[in-house]
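Students often ask what a 'structure token' actually looks like in practice. Rather than answer in the abstract, let us consider Outer membrane protein beta-barrel domain-containing protein, a protein of 998 residues. Its sequence is given first.
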Amino acid sequence: MAMRSGLLAGVSLISFVVAAVPAVAADLPAKIPARAPAAPVWSWTGLYIGTHAGNAWDRSEWLSGSGELAALPRFRGTGTSGGAFGGAQIGYNYQTGPWVLGVELEGSVADLDGNARCAMAQAVCNTRIDAMGTLVGRAGWTFDNVLVYGRAGGAYAHAKHIVTAYNADNPAEGDSNRFGWTAGAGVEYAVSPTWSAKLEYDYLHFGTDQVTISSPTESLEIDTRQQIHRVKVGLNRRLDWGLPGLPASGVAGGAGFPVKAVAPSVPAWTVEVGTRVWYSEGRYQKDLMDNVNPGRLNSRLSYNDMTGIAGEAFGRFDHRSGLFVKGNFGAGALTGGTLHDEDFPSEVVYSNTVSDMKDGRMRYASADVGWNVLTGPTGKLGAYVGYRYFHERGNGFGCAQIAADETCAPAVPTRFLGLSETETWRGVALGLNTQVQLTDRVRLEVDGAILPYASRTGYDNHWYRADINPQIESGHGWGGQLEAILSYMITPQWNVGVGGRYWYYTTTDARTQFPGEVSDSPMKYTAERWGGFLQASYMFDSTGGEAATPAPGGVFKAPAAAPPGWSWTGVYVGGHVGAAWGRTEWTTATGTGREVWNDVDGIVAGGQVGADYQMGQWVVGVEGSWSWSDLDGNASCGRIYTCNVHADGLGMLTGRLGWASGNVLLYGKGGVAWLRTDQSMLYNEIPNAYSAKETRTGWTLGSGIEYGLMPNVTAKIEYNWSDFGTKSVAMTDQFGGVIPVDVKQTVQDVRLGVNYRFGQTGTVTPTRAMRPFASLLATGPAMSWTGVYAGLHVGGGHAAETWSNPFGPQVFGDDIGSGGWLAGGQVGYNHQIGSVVLGAEADISAANFDGTNTCFVGLNPAIGGVDCRSQLDALATFTGRAGWAFARNLVYVKGGGAWARESRELNLVGVDGGGVYRTTAGRWGWTVGAGIEHALLPNVSVKLEYDYVSLGDDTASFGLPGGFAAVDNRTVSQDAHVAKLGVNYLFNTPVAPLQAKY
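Now compare that with the structural description of the same chain:
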């Protein structure tokens, strides 16, 4: 289930860090020597217990089968499963000097689920993992209160395997207990002598195993192989007793570390949490090649103008050592767009159908851990490694033919769902992040990441082609992301901002398999999404208030304890928004007892009312909530039905039990849940639908964290699991027909909420003093930009190329969009006169911009169009620059000449004996751009820059055979939009030393 795969890692990253940091301030000692070393006050040595949550994805390979499966020319199938997991761990550490050795036992409940095509694509092979465990040794190195560690040992997983043949009434099922090995790494941060938070990656390998699967009529043996990748966050509590003969937590085992006090102006840590609203547009393209002749294009699906809106929560934790952890999660809707579905087979007439894209879904998440490699008085530059998750489902309604084929002629009305494209990308990210303080209130943050490896799992459902549904797609490739945020500090805690981002994903190896075919059909998939967002965030740090005053004798006070006098007792009301996902199982959907299932996902928004009563640190309460929801999902029910579930309401009445530390509350909840649903079954061969509406009752369990922002205002983040069991539903149609269906439903949700509490709850002390306002128009430069500089840059962009068509204006085609990454270097010279900076710069980049589209529609009446490709692998500019300097900043414009090396490809395979033709040439043009540069250090600056590049008109000469002369030597025009993040070293001496302002 794709939704499970991304959200919990982002949720837990924020909730654990936010919970642990302020909640344990009171555990720190009152006074810590700031100078001469003293006896260690604490070490990592001791026994601990904890909890964790995250997401995982696995690669399941179905290798071979016995009986009738062994007689098939091909049984093998490969699929990707994904989902959430959570559980508990217990372990023991022993520290000697800076080294920490330990052992850990961990167990998790899981909800990993995914499909593969197998048995010559005439069956769906499903893998579900519901439990995992590891027993590992750990070895790490600690500095200050940070532990970086590796782990390795044994691994366990419980898996259920289901093979559902299209012509079978009942699936064959089997369970297996898998044993293998695991290796991983992580970082753990001690927020007090008793609490620590961690971020961790694990790889689990289970090798090949034989599993028995059974149906009511037979038993078969299958060979499977599995490997799992996991990203998780955790919270550990150290106990005050040790193992026999070994010290307890908090007792130095040879050498520990102090929870250090630092100068009041440097908090030990800083946390920022917030929300965003992202308005975006996207473009996606899927090219399906022939399985016998892989060079021949069979089909192309082009999704254009895919508009979307999403809500997002984000968080960032910065430690004084330079360590930072950040993450986000978001969910929303795809609100509009257009699909062109083209078919190119030579034995039929070219087809190009158009559908309206609407009512889709999207969600995404990230988790990063990094280190600031450059830190100056007004900014920092860090490198990180992380994880990315991106899922979307587009729904195409209606169908109209714009070519000569008979498909969708006459047109199918747009009220009918015809096609759904579902894709999930998961990958590792390597990136750079910079934050620069342009003024005392204005901050610029730029983040760029390359995804060197990203897996893609997809489902293509043509709802009137139940014989091929779901068309399962697998593959891998790479991607890139670029983001910039300009934020303004309203108060010391509250910030607002505006930003933009660009995402790009593409496959280098992808494929699918059609029923009855032995060989796979190669695929190429490209996805782009870009847009702008608004955000608001809240910041707090370890000081807990105004900068602490040094105590006598050079001893600094520990971070302030939680606000005194805070009480959770009282009545509250509030609102919430979030994302939800779930599963519906139809066990008698076709009257044959055959089990099918579909995933649902969407958003939730609503309100809650409740009351809490605090007794010491324990808080008990009751809460009622109701959410408007937009959960939706489809699945093929047998060969002739499409099953749909839509839920528009989710209610809960729960008790709450929590543990409070000042204005932080960690809680669990449980009670009754209600779900208002609309279920329908569309009979595909005859336009007829069976439907039923009902409100279902079930149970719910959840947990969360609530934080006091103001004396009467709290914010919370919460996860809930709701189970509505199995119920028999009578599905009726307009003619009085009835089909009995047994429906089982579960729903999970993550929600972000705000509560207003009546009565005085307590006080919240500001986290730091207000810094004086500094105007953007600060007079006089703080440094000189004069001198020679050299540097490096990375970035991404989008190019558009138009091929002239000799057959006249076309309804579709001839414009090729391409996107990708670039990286290179620059050298230049600046001369500063007052606040004006003039200069010249040359840069060169290696690039990988790649795109395809249909072109030359009209070349052959039967074929219609052919495949054109544009690639750009090098880009250089030679420009003058003019800018204005203030404080440590330089805002500039640039303009001059540009050069690019581009390759063009014309694929005529399948057209009158044609082949693939390619030409490569250098092109000259011009460029204009603008950017902002900030001096981190006297000789080191970072910059963010946008460039527009126009390469004008050129002639594409392929040297084609005579029969294709009409499409040779055509005029091609191209332009590109590029964004870069760069670092420069300036060979000069600053006019005045830079002064730290915080």
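One point worth highlighting: Residues 567-768 form a domain with the Porin fold (CATH 2.40.160.20). Ask yourself how you might have guessed this from the sequence alone, and why that guess would often be unreliable.
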